[in-house]
Please model this.
Amino acid sequence: MEIRRVLIFMDPAVKVEIKQPIVQTVLRVEEVAAWLMKLKEEVQLYPKLSPDLWRDAITDALLPPYCPLNDFSSQVGRTLQLGICCPKCKKFTWTSHRYYLHCDHCGFCQSKELAYVKTICDYGVLFSNSNLERKELKKFLGEVGNEYYLRYQLKKHLN
Model:
């Protein structure tokens, strides 16, 4: 079994010039679909391989997940702006409606579910060395945060 590395450039505006030969396949984002279809056809030519064989083949190519030694909680004296950040203007003033949030500063509207999940993920990244706790997440969401809606989103998206 052979492992082939593929380098994919996601920004269609990027122009890449490679001056030396490389081993990896280099694709632009618009070429990915055709490449995946070709790969699917290649895989169907081979008989079913056991999961153990796949695991053994990629073990050497796996990289450990990145996890910093210190997270934001170790930075004494630094404080965070609590609340849900507007992706457009980076302000934290929202008016909450039933299904969406409306930014009071720029007028941007975002689904409430997306805003909550994004903020939960932000919290998880900033405080990666500790477990998610609903009480701390509620504080992190700020005034817009709703305990019942937070509980619903946690059940829906996380184990």
Summary: The first strand starts at residue 6 and ends at 9. The first helix runs from residue 32 to 45. The CA atoms of residues 41 and 127 lie 43 Å apart. The mean pLDDT is 84.
